[in-house]
Amino acid sequence: MKPPLRRALVTGLLSLGILVATLSLVAIGLSGIANGQPPSGTSGPYPPVMDPDVAKGYYVAVLGDCVGCHTVPGGLPFAGGRPLVTPFGTIYSANITPDKDAGIGRWTADDFYRALHEGKAPDGHLYPAFPYNYYTRIGRADSDALFAYLRGLPPSPKRSPRSDLPFPFNIRALMMGWNLLFLDKGDYKPDPAKSAAWNRGAYLVEGPGHCAACHTPKNFLGAPRTSRDYHGGDIGNGWYAPDITPNKRTGIGGWSDEELFQYLKTGRNAHANAAADMGEVVAYSTSRMTDDDLRAIIAYLRDRPARADDTPAKPDPAVMKAGEAVYVDSCAACHRMDGAGSMAMFPRLPGSPNLQQPNPSTLIRVLLVGSRSLPTDARPTPTSMPAFNWKLRDEQIAAVATYVRNSWGNAAAPVGVDTVTRMRKALGADRRTLPDGYPTDMRHPNPETISSPHTDSRQNGTGQAGTAADGGGP
Amino acid sequence: MSEKLPSVDVLVVGFGWTGAIVAQELTDAGLNVLALERGRWRDTPTDFAPTFAQDELRYMWRHALFENLAHNTLTIRNNTSQTALPMRVMGSFLPGTGVGGSGVHWNGQTWRFLPSDLEVRSHVTRRYGAKAIPADMTIQDFGVTYDDLEPHYDRFEYLCGTSGTAGNLNGQIQPGGNPFEGARKRAYPTPAMRQAYAPTLFAEAAAKLGYHPFPQPSSNLSQAYTNPLGVQLAPCTYCGFCEKFGCGNYSKASAQTTILPVLMRKPNFTLRTEAEALTINRDSTGKRAVSVTYVDAQGREFEQPADLIFLGTYALNNVRLLLLSGIGTPYDPRTGQGVVGRNYAYQRTSFVNAFFDDKILNPFIGAGAHGMHIDDFNGDNFDHGGLGFLGGGYFGVLQTGARPIETHPVPEGTPTWGGAWKKAVAANYLKTTTISTHGGVMSHRGNYLDLDPTYRDVYGRPLLRMTFDYTDNEQKMARYITDRAADVARAMSPREIKVVYRDGSWDVVPYQTTHNTGGAIMGADPKTSVVNRYLQSWDVSNLFVMGASAFPQNPGYNPTGTVAALAYWSLEAVREQYLKSPGPLVRT
């Protein structure tokens, strides 16, 4: 229900005017031979597109994953209103449908370009929850294409709620200062020493893809700490966006190009299933990109400096033993005794970067409240991890987390019981019944229950797995 | 007064295996499909997650996945001289409710019928002469042949990822498979499950006696599998909680694990849960169904119009809906006239326990369709000359997991409670196995379904009344194959065996099988069948009735494979013929 500060509004593609000569990939991307093609029927959140000019803008929207932040789950696509929880307060995404009052129907293409480029809307400064510090790399031609696409959407008259920020953050003009400090305005500038694919990847990652918005830690003003680019970031609500540098233990260094490609294309590989925010990124954005664009992204990420490795503290053998007992009882059925899992269903645990992050919060969160991957066309099964909040005590969760972080060659700092206790409290996962509508990644499309919403288990998700059926929990 | 809703192309009533198959096929054909399901939405992570799926008390004993009998049940009697009484506690069979239907708690046993099963009257007449069929035995041919169904069996097995060893590939008998099966065009999609110790002992003993043991075809998968729709299943963990349970590990095929991930994303599909169909409404000619009236969980009534209607509400409910809607002539056992409710059949089961001293069998290792069987005494795989009965069944050690509350095998002569009983359970639990027989039931003039004159459901509608008993044919058949099973049990060299024939009248109390069949049977003649060979109503050509209600009699196999194959067979005709030219697919 409350996705953290991460990616947001609008995006773009390369400025064809500048780069078409060097990057013939763009033309492939937009020709729509195999993928990257706009849907002709309804496909996920994207309304069908027929006009080829508008189709170009569709692909820009895909690259930027605009629909993720600008849509309330189950709501009209691009109509905004989704709450983004930031350390400074809650910001609601804007309605970017062409409604004249509630949306951007009165905007000009110039207004739109300025919003992307400078973070300034006709009626004032935008907050960088809208990632204009990345979208500034998007060229004018792609900005115009995206604007044309958005203009063709069904308008929604629904106004987004006003953002709920305390003083002084409610003074939008303060963003001028933030921009002065942190906004490096301007189109992407290719590096002539690198290949076309590398440049394309760099553009996608640094620009419309705005990967750093989640995967780079933030300073106290919410700006990326560029010295630790892609080292991983706490994105709130218990999720930690992992290291995506070539570090072999915690980053993508242990994954082959093909495995990375499978992950971005289908949301699954032997190591991980994309859930929650990354599940949306895959479902709405990367799975719809061209294969060449995905390979360009991979080439660029591979070429970045790896996060320097650290030597984690050794776990207590008694805790490891307790953790193994929990693992055998509660985890081994799916993940197998040797942690091998099952391809694209139950992630493989040996070598898993997700398990070995310096910050264990994703692991603890998933153990407590479960998770569910988002379906993609290639992998429609919404695989899931059940919640253990009602079944395992804090000591057991800490022990099994420590165990999986330090078995089969894995190495990561032990997880303290107090960390689990804190997270359980923060997630409201200490009771059998979790708050309504939480967590958000449990949504399964579409069954209609006219009568009694509380008996529709879509409302529950694995977070309420222990109490989903009649007759109370176990 | 019911509220009339906007019309849809296709209305599916009941959202279990067949409902999901119909919706998947017809949304693929570009039609707008709406499914009504009386129960709730259910899915793997929310309703049977591995953290609590193996809760025997909740699922097995408190029936969390089954029909609510306080809401709706049926009345039961053995024959017309008795007064039928409502079934107030589940026993002999366990119909499901909710999304996925009974397919959520099935065992995953995925059989094909024998070619001769589908043409049983013609076959028996050819081999033994018309006199071999007793006058009151109302068996008839299905109206489809094994060759008609083969591609559709194949379709379902590849949807499920069924694990097995082929016994007959294109007419070539294969080692390790069932040599009696009809020819299959290709192998099972995944190899047979690995067998635990007791099924292995059974297979060795059966082979020693000259029989042909083979692994149970199983939709609890031996390995990970991605089906043709792109939906994934994971390897079975042999946890022993299939029958009466949903699978938490995505290892057992169900609508949830094979179709719904794709179907639920389609914009031309809608599922409406907690919507219980009351009647099928027709136009003034009576020959065309126009809508279904249903009631939601708040008691509001709606009328849902549609061009094409499919019933997939379970065999018993299909028959009841037809009777309540006045579609087709109700069967009358006195005259033998009429069709709706005719030829209700069931399954005839028995078992033999084998108690060992020297073998630890670890019976808790199990899966719903994990075991070894022989088919030497099924259908007409053996000469019935002089035996005085028709039909048969398979038997074998089906090790489904010896769940602790349910499983306490003790030798004959053990007290039924107290210290001695507990001691015997402890001594025998790990060292006992069971050979179970699974026999067919031929249809009989006196076994049928109609509406009860007295008892009504929560909406005031008459309950279905079941009149059923085993006939001399089934009793002789069961005696014969149970004795053969006992032969194999003895050949396993146990300390002792216990033979349970289950003689006498059919009893609704002990669980036997949820294989209720017939009542809306298929056939070639509208005088003796409710639906034609495409499962299309003879009376109302835009109404199709899916499910085991179509079986004219019940062969000695579990029905789901054939239920699904018939659904695919019917839908092929709908797509290729009916949609191009709506109307009766078979002229009378």
Walk me through this protein's architecture.
The complex is a heterodimer of chains A (about 475) and B (about 600). By secondary structure, chain A is mostly helical. Chain A has a two-stranded antiparallel sheet. A two-stranded antiparallel ribbon of chain A has the order 3-4. Chain A has 18 helices and nine strands. In chain B, strand 19 and strand 20 form a beta hairpin. Chain B is an alpha/beta fold and about 600 residues long. Chain B contains 13 helices and 22 strands. In chain B, strands 1, 2, 3, 11, 12, 13, 14 and 22 form an eight-stranded mixed beta sheet that branches. Strand 9 of chain A pairs parallel with strand 11 of chain B.
Helices and strands in order:
The complex is a heterodimer of chains A (474) and B (588).
Chain A: H1 16-19, H2 25-31, H3 52-64, H4 66-69, E1 83-86, E2 89-92, H5 109-118, E3 120-121, E4 124-125, H6 132-135, H7 140-151, H8 175-182, H9 196-206, H10 212-215, E5 233-236, E6 239-241, H11 257-266, H12 276-285, H13 291-302, H14 317-330, H15 332-335, H16 361-369, E7 371-372, E8 384-385, H17 394-405, H18 417-427, E9 448-449
Antiparallel strand pairs in A: 1-2, 3-4, 5-6, 7-8
Chain B: E1 3-4, E2 8-13, H1 17-28, E3 33-37, H2 44-47, H3 56-61, E4 74-77, E5 85-86, H4 115-118, H5 120-128, H6 146-160, E6 168-169, E7 172-173, H7 197-208, E8 214-215, E9 225-226, E10 232-233, H8 255-258, H9 260-263, E11 269-273, E12 275-282, E13 289-296, E14 301-311, H10 315-325, E15 348-355, E16 371-374, E17 393-398, H11 419-428, E18 432-439, E19 448-456, E20 462-467, H12 472-491, E21 496-500, E22 543-545, H13 560-578
Parallel strand pairs in B: 1-14, 2-3, 2-14, 3-11, 4-20, 14-22
Antiparallel strand pairs in B: 4-5, 6-7, 8-16, 9-10, 12-13, 13-14, 15-18, 15-21, 16-17, 17-18, 19-20
Overview in brief:
Chain A has helices at residues 16-19, 25-31, 52-64, 66-69, 109-118, 132-135, 140-151, 175-182, 196-206, 212-215, 257-266, 276-285, 291-302, 317-330, 332-335, 361-369, 394-405, 417-427, and strands at residues 83-86, 89-92, 120-121, 124-125, 233-236, 239-241, 371-372, 384-385, 448-449.
